[in-house]
Amino acid sequence: MNKLAIIGIAAGLVLAAGHPAAAQKKASETDVTVITSERLTFDYLKKFALFEKDVLVVDPQMKIYADKMLVRFNNDNRATYIKAEGNVIIIQDDKRARGEVAEYEVASGEITLSGNPMITSGKNIMTADVIKYWRDDSRMEGKPRSRLVIYPEGDQNRDRLFMEPSRGR
Question: Model-level pTM?
Fold first, then answer.
């Protein structure tokens, strides 16, 4: 599963956990998602949760860091829209995404990174002014000024590219 798509799942799990029906279900420790922040505003009637300052999402599959995260949900307590803002970093295994804003439209599965976004997988790097990813299609689009750097598997020279030069030693 894509690291950005899990933003929606993580927030959805947290919102569902706040609902009384979720208390009836027992989850194992490996299924738990925890979101911490300095401040949380949760409005059940207006159907949103706002996490502010030092937001950290710890999920069994990933971590998300942001300055602020807004989650809107429907009458069934399912996340419909998630927006992480300010120094957004998403980490899953060797994959990392960063940007100033990450927006996730749950129904369409569309995730948009903006504000100097960059996605890395190992040493491979993708940048653009805006990067969109469609969760269900495993499709990405970067525009304008897209750049993709791909290193071949098993290429020993790629490791030397990021190391200090030997300088004749």
Answer: 0.69
